[in-house]
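Quick one, tokens below:
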């Protein structure tokens, strides 16, 4: 439903997109995951016919975005990163106006507006001017506006950035619902968890380049094994590291700031039990202990050497507490 082949775009010296490929099957959610400035919105604008690529091509339902932008626009709905609604109109008026811009007859525009208000839980607020709406309500209204034209492809640019957790969950449920009804969704996000929860397939971009692609599980399994994570009192860290040295099947990572040891394991349950036995024998009670799959955060860190939240890769931690130097720790 969405095909992107070798798309590049520069703004002066900034390479916003470099040879990007992506292919989205009908009725699926494609996650486009990357930190701020990765090039997500640039790709969204190209697909929405708002920006021409320097090279490569993009098609929606087989239609080239540059050759036939009008048809492409009739197929897509776009909810941008910043809610684009008229402050002085009511929620209902905004939606009806969008319907009229889609050249729907007035009664149909009203019906569609009503449907969108209901689906997005905005019926009670429908006749209030948008300037009285909260951020979450605006974002929902904007999403509603992108649905009035019944698009086959919905492009959502960071739909939940800045939303509270409750509204984010509602938004997720809503997006799943649309996809169950056959809509194809391209969703950009900086939240690993969001891509993990929603996307059938994920493309990870960083500095304009695709650095990984696959399902969430595929991306995680690139890291291989599950992990045991043990958090102890700071005074127990060295002893814990020593007694756990034979557990697991790879090199342990020691986070001295959080007093946390992460050990890759190949036989998760027996290894976890072995860890418990040696800890118990040594009289160490961890503050926290668990077995977990690698998260997309681990994947992103492994791929880029940075977490998605890091703008500056080598900025010092701001938490005040400094890492201990292992060499200087008395035995
Ligand atoms: N119109 C523009 N003019 C100049 N630079 C731009 C423009 N749009 C985007 N950029 C730059 O291109 C890069 C990618 O931006 P963008 O696609 O907005 O990233 P994202 O949406 O992933 O945060 C950034 O370095 C950004 O500053
Ligand atoms: Mg953006």
């Amino acid at each position: 439903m969405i095909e992107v082949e070798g798309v590049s775009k520069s703004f002066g010296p900034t390479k916003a997109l470099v040879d990007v490929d992506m292919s989205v099957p009908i009725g699926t959610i494609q996650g486009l995951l990357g930190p701020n400035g990765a090039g997500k919105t640039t790709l969204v604008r190209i697909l929405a016919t708002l920006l021409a690529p320097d090279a490569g091509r993009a098609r929606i339902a087989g239609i080239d975005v540059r050759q036939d932008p009008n048809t492409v626009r009739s197929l897509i709905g776009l909810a941008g990163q910043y809610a684009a609604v008229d402050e002085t109109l009511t929620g209902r008026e905004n939606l009806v106006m969008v319907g009229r811009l889609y050249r729907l007859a007035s009664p149909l525009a009203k019906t569609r507006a009503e449907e969108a208000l209901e689906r997005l839980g905005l019926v009670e607020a429908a006749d209030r001017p948008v300037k009285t709406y909260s951020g979450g309500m605006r974002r929902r209204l904007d999403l509603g506006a992108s649905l009035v034209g019944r698009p086959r492809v919905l492009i959502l640019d960071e739909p939940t950035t800045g939303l509270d957790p409750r509204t984010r969950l509602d938004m997720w449920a809503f997006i799943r619902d649309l996809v169950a009804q056959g809509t194809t969704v391209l969703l950009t996000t900086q939240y690993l968890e969001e891509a993990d929860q929603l996307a059938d397939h994920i493309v990870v971009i960083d500095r304009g380049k695709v650095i990984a692609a696959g399902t969430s599980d595929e991306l995680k399994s690139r890291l291989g094994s599950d992990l045991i994570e043990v958090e102890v009192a700071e005074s127990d860290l060295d002893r814990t590291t020593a007694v756990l040295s034979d557990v697991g099947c790879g090199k342990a990572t020691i986070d001295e700031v959080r007093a946390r040891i992460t050990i890759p394991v190949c036989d998760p349950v027996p290894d976890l039990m072995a860890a418990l036995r040696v800890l118990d024998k040594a009289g160490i009670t961890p503050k926290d202990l668990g077995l977990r799959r690698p998260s997309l955060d681990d994947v992103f860190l492994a791929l880029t050497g940075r977490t998605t939240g890091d703008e500056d890769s080598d900025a010092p931690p701001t938490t005040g507490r400094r890492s201990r130097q292992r060499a200087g720790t008395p035995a």
